[in-house]
Every structure is written in C-alpha cells, then in structure tokens.
Amino acid sequence: MIPTITFFIFYQHYKTKVRITRIFDYSYSTIFPIKIYACSDFENRLHSKVYLIDNQVAYLGSLNFTYSGTKNNHETRIRIWEPVALEKIKEEIDCLIDDDFQSELDFQFWGKILYIETIN
User: Fold this and answer.
1) How many Å apart are CA 38 and CA 106, to the nearest integer?
2) Measured distance CA(95)–CA(55) in Å, rounded
3) Which helix (H) or strand (E) holds 8?
4) Which residues pair with 60 in a beta bridge?
5) Nearest to 28 by CA among 111, 97, 120
6) Predicted pLDDT at 42
7) Which of 74, 76, 73 is nearest to 61 (CA)?
8) Which tens digits make up the pLDDT trace of 11-62?
9) How far is CA 120 from CA 20, 25, 36, 115, 117, in A?
10) Exposed, middle or buried: residue 58 (CB in 10 Å: 0-12, 13-18, 19+)?
11) Which segments within the chain are labelled E, that is strand?
12) Is this prediction's pTM over 0.70?
C-alpha cells in the first residue's frame, strides 16, 4: 500500500510540474528591416505604410501586409517606380529605421503580443 501511495504522490507532483514547464522556446525574426513605433498618444500615431521592394518599386498607402489587407479590404496605395523618387523614399526609410528618438517596440516583444505561445 505504501508504494502505491508514494507512486501516486510523485505522479501528481510531476504531472503538475510537467504541465507548467515550457517545452518550446519561440523567437521571432524578419527577412526585411522593420521598426514598430510605440505610440502612447492615439492622435499622433504613425499609421502610414511604405513598402520598398528591391529598390525597384515602392508602395505608399494604407495597405496592411496581411491576407485581409491584400485580398479583402478596400485599401489605398500609390505605386512608384521612378528612380529619383525611389531614392528619396529609400533615404526616408533609412532615416526612420536609424532614428533613435522614437520609442519603438522590440520585435520579440511584439511577436509575443501578436501570437499566442502555448506552454505545451
């Protein structure tokens, strides 16, 4: 009887321990430069999107880079392929990416907010 009770106690203890132990470790990365600005003031949010693709074409507008944004929503965008304009857009993007004065969300932190990470 004592071995059975001992086994049951250990079983319950380790069952709980295994349930709360993280098995997976997630990290997030991007294949292109991205900066997510943290805005506490609703009226001064940066909501524009600028996509510069291979320094050959740029899209500016409200288009979200999501399934709904590209397939379902009515979005606005401007396509630019003129070289001088593309160079100015690239300079602006570089300036925004390198700007240390805007508070921004860490990419890992943002990923954990957007995607539910299961414990097991």
Assistant:
1) 9
2) 16
3) helix 2-20
4) 50, 78
5) 111
6) 56
7) 76
8) 887 777 766 766 666 777 777 777 766 666 655 666 678 889 999 999 998 8
9) 8, 10, 29, 15, 9
10) buried
11) 36-37, 49-53, 57-61, 77-80, 104-105
12) no
